[in-house]
Amino acid sequence: MGLELVLSTKLILAILIPFIGTTLGSAMVFFLRKQLNQKILKILLGFASGVMISASFFSLLLPAIEALENYKKWLIPTIGFSIGIAFLVMMDKLIPHEHIDKTEEGIGINHIKKQLKLFLAIIIHNIPEGLAVGVIIASAINGTINQQAALTLSIGIAIQNFPEGAVVSMPLKETGISKFKAFMYGVFSGVVEPIAAIVAILLTSITQSVLPYALAFAAGAMIYVVSDELLPEAQSGDKSMLPTLGVAIGFVIMMVLDIALG
What's the pTM value of the predicted model, to 2 decimals? Predict the structure, then answer.
């Protein structure tokens, strides 16, 4: 039997919150002349990394393991996780794009072609996050995890989407286009997340047997994003303990919510 596609208010919010985070970040083009404070960015990136690492185990891998029996408990999560990593590596290699750098001072880019590559990079970066949200929502619909866990993961992703939206919109303003157009570019970079989430929900609704693979795939994709993008960005520039503090806080909060709320 497929998943019952009935979304509660919490699950609808879980789909939309990451996109809202990107939109709010893009709106900074109207309010800020310079980039966000670097210390705040480092904490936010660390916090989001901690939430995503914790969610990868407690909300994604652990439910996948518990849903399986015998040798499948380690085989299917290994396969799904590896495919998730490989998928992101392939996208990184095959699609030309600029790597994201949120914390470096003087982030303004005066060359439109380079900025559009950065726009593409953030779209690529957002796809696995949207898939992860969709998979965890499908698990909530299925009763595998609590709906609050899905909402918490979405909030964590939205936090790190906030500076991403600013990364797209604010440098584009420096190329001479209007603030509104720069804002819309930032908004469009986040549209892929709810789309990917809905696709993941629909795919996992076809059969529950694919859910353990999907959970492990999403975990692998999220760990890749954390290790390849978020943590290197958080530690760029001056060495600081702030990202590590953010990781610890984010991990513990997500772990407590997952365990306490079942």
Answer: 0.73
